[in-house]
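ok so for the tutorial part 2 we go from a plain amino acid sequence to predicted structure tokens. step 1 is just haveing the sequence, like this:
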Amino acid sequence: DPYPTFKRLREQKPIFYSRIFGAQFVTRYDDCLEILRSPAVSADRRETSLFPAVRWLNRNEPEFLTLFDRNLLMLEGPDHRRLRGLISKAFTPRRILALRPHLEEIAEDLLDKATPGGTMELISDFAYPFPLVAIAELLGVPREDHARFREWTSGLVQILDPLQGEDGAEPMRRATRELFAYFRPLLAARRAEPRDDLISAMIHSEDETGPLDEDDLLSLCTLVLAAGHETTANLIGNSIMALLRNPEQRKRLAEDPGLLPTAVDEFLRFDSPIQFTDRAVAEDFELGGHHFKKGAFVGILLASANRDADQFANPDQLDVGRTPNPHLALSHGSHFCLGAQLARMETEIALGALLRRFPDFKGLPEQVQWRRSSLLRGPTAVPLQL
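step 2 — the prediction. this is what the tokens look like for a chain of 386 residues:
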């Protein structure tokens, strides 16, 4: 439970230096929001002191270096605006909303398969496969290949959190090589014969400078798969854990499913699946009496900001009807989560189906273990009695 520590930091040391990350971290809501808005910081971390070492260590990994240099999480300015604008043309609200009936069928099918004996392991049976199938089908990945993607994403997610891997960087490198090798012929096939899927839409999306090039497409497909699956799986797991620990809020939500949209935002705030993000300091600036030097990193503790009592009334209490709810779980500004609408919709569908079909499900939240990560927050397994 990191939240008591975050509270102490907000009260006693709201800006602190982490030796492990080599960065100053901000913990209060107003400071986090100011950093996310500030022109003095940049998502482009490629010119900081750490990244020449990363490039050298991966000098024989061209696929990884392509993903490293050309993904949306690392780009800023005109490059970022162009790439985000092009994918936004493909990743439209209409396309996502059109998926809803099919996603509801997928959720029902997974619950049918997972419950022959009245029990279910939430994460492996439901929370992971549901968004994985959803993002794979949105991209246009053939159904027979869905199972291969679980292993790839578990390796690829180390890009978001390098400290969580127990086997070094090789799983991340291998996943990148194999995904690029998988997507290259799929991109060629969609160029020759477009379909109604995200890959086809990205291939044929262009602006005044032309269409996306092969490296950008490969990086986007790989990033969308990893980010669109892993974080939503954690959000579903965190949401169920919150409901198990807060039976009165669970009862309220079960009796009024119309609260699902506000509930999902509250789950994002209450136990954020991405605990923090970081930025490179692009120019010297001062904040709260602390000096941030150009070329350094600054960490933004989103999960701490989302429990700040100066912004949220009773921040440590779950309130599925909380409005307004200006949480930072999906970031803010130009790097606001591109898949926010899809993640919210998937979580609404997953929770709604589970509460409707198994309103009396039980679990033992105090026995649940959490994943080995300081950045990605989610339970590793949640056994449920249905």
